[in-house]
Design a protein that fits this description.
The protein has 78 residues and is α+β, with helices and mostly antiparallel strands. 56% of the residues lie in helices and 18% in strands.
Amino acid sequence: MNLNSIALLQQLKTQLEKFKARHPKFPLFLEAVSEHALTEGTVVEIAVSTPDGQNYTSNLRLMAEDIELIRSLKDMNV
């Protein structure tokens, strides 16, 4: 890993810590989901509402490969 990659990872870690400080309940939510709801067939739905009233919603059904990716990222502490 070169110095640019290390610096980028450190910057990402700093930004993630700031995000957790601004939104302390969200990491707890993600932790609960990862412990209790990561099973094949689980539907994950994401809804976004903008200040001007626009709404966007999407969902996906988790497959075994998705769960493997999520667990790998979790093991990396991402």
